[in-house]
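Fungal-type protein kinase domain-containing protein: structure tokens wanted.
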Amino acid sequence: RGTIVAEAIVLTSPVEEYNGTDVVVKWVWTSKTHTAEADLVRHARNLAETENPHMLDHLPHFLCVEEVEIDPSEDLVLRVVVQEPLEPLDDPRLTGEELAKAFKDIFECYRWLVEVAKILHRDISVSNLM
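Answer:
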């Protein structure tokens, strides 16, 4: 079990607009029974479209999502997600005002995810807040 994250550039895509785009690729080895991050984000984005369109600016946009069963006798699957890059909170180029706005937006989004989308993220750390 674990996650690997890498930056990449789309060289060739069936979706022409993605060509040359900077992306982040996440490889997640996890239990088959663990709800996929892509499913949670899809649920939240669908709710946001009607309930709170402002939240769409704060939820990741996935360009591609794949799931591969490595060994049918094991409980593990490999989930690969290609998404637009997000800005890390520890970026030294952020001003104090930008950082304060980012935290305000994060708290608003987190509260909305819990209260409206019924999604609770249990690993809140600097590396997971973008």
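The chain has a mean pLDDT of 90. The chain is about 25% helix and 25% strand.

Cheers.
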